[in-house]
Amino acid sequence: MSESSGTGEAGGSALSFDLTERPWIGVLQQDGVERELSLREVFEQARDIRRVSGDLPTQEFALTRLLLAIAHDALDGPKDIEHWSRLWSDPECFAGVGEYLDVHRGSFDLLDAEVPFFQTAGLRTAKDEVFSLNRIVADVPNGDPFFSARLPAVDRLGFAEAARWVVHAHAYDTSGIKSGVVGDDRAKGGKVYPLGVGWAGNLGGVFVEGRDLRETLLLNLVAADTSGIVSGTDDRPAWRRGPSGPGGGERTPTGLRDLYTWQSRRLRLHADADGVHGVVLGYGDPLPARNMHRHEPMTAWRRSPAQEKKYREKLIYLPREHDPARSAWRGIAALVADRGQTKKGTDDVPLHLRPGVLEWVARLVTSRKLSRGFLVRARIIGTAYGTQQSVVDEVVDDHLTMDVVLLHEQDREYAQQAIDAAGDADEAVKTLGDLATDLERAAGSENEGPRTVARDRGFGELEGPYRTWLAALGSAEDPVEQRAEWQRQAYGIVLRLGRQMVADAGDLAWEGRTVPTKQGSVWLNSALAERWFRKRLRTCLGQSFPSDRPSDPGVAEESL
User: Which end of the chain is flanked by fewer CB atoms within 10 Å, N or C?
Assistant: First the structure.
């Protein structure tokens, strides 16, 4: 039996797995049941689906972008905001996708002999090697198993799961040395040296979720006339560009359909009638991340002075990646701050840009296509790589639920208060860290560990209340008063944590010792540390809170 992808025989018949008809995309239904559906079923049942459900959050991001590429191409749009509005008002807006899939059905066969989906037919190394599926299954990185229960290796995959990992490999495959395939002129000694991770692996991924998958797809379906996003008249997804040969060439994406299906790898599955058992994987089309902000809407961007100096260019933006140690709510400014609210450099150019997809939703809100009170979730997904991007260290998956009024371009006060409230939390938690340091010094220690623990606990305690407050912010008549209410909440939470820290500090901190300050030496004990903490907390939250002084009225209110 031949083992080539798409050319295997099963009882005399060529192998086939039609992604338009066979279930392979995991979804979470509105009733909480998880299922696998075909491409056709996903669009037909979009209103009954809560979201795509992948083997990893990054797989969900990659599959959602695939669905968006299909929707853009099938609808040939939306051409402008009015076209989008008609789609939003039409419960059957995706009815035409079925006919589109019929037309392009031959391009969606995972095992086709000539044009296997997202693969290169006949791809081979000079030695005809077939490699372990570990190379595309991201939860089993080479040498260091990650999330999976599949230890120590992946020997075989069903066709449905293999299809999901093929899509994921183009988006998030690691960098490192890869096999040199026959016909790739970049190969040296049978190897191709590192060319970077899959395109989505460069991003701090952001997309908008609605109440169901239909709304989610539409909210992320950026119109072709959107300012700041390139949309060429010849924009096509990968399956309408013809088969990709070995190797790759440098070019710029023509638009979102091209970008969302970018072929950053060349791969070929090896299968038999029982499933997929091996893969050949090499580099495909490189795509430098530098200044791609006019093409890629699903990430925030940061200005890079280092890159500007290196390439001698006046302005370079790079994707703003997610910090696994920082929850999404603490970085809300990257999501809702427009150019007028963003810090600028000496040349008055913004240091950061929010994701284009949120700029698009802001346009929908300002144009009254979405009404105040409509809640969306900004979904945050990304990958942190390690060891020269050759392994996956962490996967980030977070979200923020917010009223779309926070994105209104002519009513920025709500967004500003949300940003400032997150800043209040940062400052309040800083006072908690300072208290931990003071208590350690009072006990005769310089250990910084308690400061980190105190800050982590502070952010952990504030996270839930902030998220609840943010979701309700849009319904408030006065956002400034709502911020004052948040400050009162934060004050109570952090004060309680500080009191507990003082109570737990122990006898050495209670007794204290002499320490130097800017005003001279003082006797620092837990009582004075608490006094300083309360003063700082009242100051940073900008409120006339009760002084709530500790029991020792004789200690000085000085700051270190």
Answer: N
